[in-house]
Amino acid sequence: MILKPTDIAGAFLIEVEPLGDERGFFARTFCLETLRKAGVNTGPVRQTSISVNPRRGTLRGMHWQVEPFGENKLVRASSGTIYDVIVDIRPTSSSFRRWFGAELSAVRHNGLFIPRGCAHGFLTQSDDVTVEYAMDADFAPGQGRGARWNDPAFGIVWPFEPVLIGDRDRSYPDFAP
Ligand SMILES: Cc1cn([C@H]2C[C@H](O)[C@@H](COP(=O)(O)OP(=O)(O)O[C@H]3O[C@H](C)C(=O)[C@H](O)[C@H]3O)O2)c(=O)[nH]c1=O
């Protein structure tokens, strides 16, 4: 697997290196040691989850867990295609308030490593999207916070307007650090 740095400190795109033969290919999609060698202080995977989104144009986010319930997150699309976005909301970070977006797809098998303290969200770019999550912390109910996908504090440029957003996601107040 290949780690590609992003505009967000500690966040990496993960591209696979297919090892192919006549049957198809095998590829590593996560390696704790590779991340640690890149300076990422992440724990082992404690929980994995899926997010199933039948409709193109569904937006989920922007979400984060407050400390000490933060979680490092590895995200990939196991079906369909998403535009995945991270926003750095760590006030002491060199990339504070900066956003980064990338297309993740089942076809490319690519992933995104999202450090704790960053807001995360995605817009589905196809029907029948499943997003796979791996986290290094247990989910803590009630410890989530959020910001709107179009909060002027970040200026995120999305590929197109969402057509389906949950009431909670559309009604977050303006971001205030
Ligand atoms: C995140 C999470 C949720 N849940 C439960 C809580 C609710 O009963 C139900 C749906 O949760 P929610 O509406 O917060 O799901 P999303 O709106 O997809 O939230 C996620 O979307 C953005 C894009 C993310 O990056 C996070 O993974 C997460 O915040 O699953 C759990 O049991 N465990 C979990 O880890």
TrEMBL record:
Q: What class of enzyme is it?
A: isomerase
Catalytic activity line of the entry: dTDP-4-dehydro-6-deoxy-alpha-D-glucose = dTDP-4-dehydro-beta-L-rhamnose
List the CDD domains hit by this protein, alphabetically.
Answer: cupin_RmlC
Q: Which gene is this protein's source?
A: rfbC_2
- By what name is this protein known? dTDP-4-dehydrorhamnose 3,5-epimerase
Report the function annotation for this chain: Catalyzes the epimerization of the C3' and C5'positions of dTDP-6-deoxy-D-xylo-4-hexulose, forming dTDP-6-deoxy-L-lyxo-4-hexulose.
The record's listing under PANTHER family reads: DTDP-6-DEOXY-D-GLUCOSE-3,5 EPIMERASE, THYMIDINE DIPHOSPHO-4-KETO-RHAMNOSE 3,5-EPIMERASE
Q: Recorded E.C. number(s)?
A: 5.1.3.13
Protein's organism: Rhizomicrobium electricum
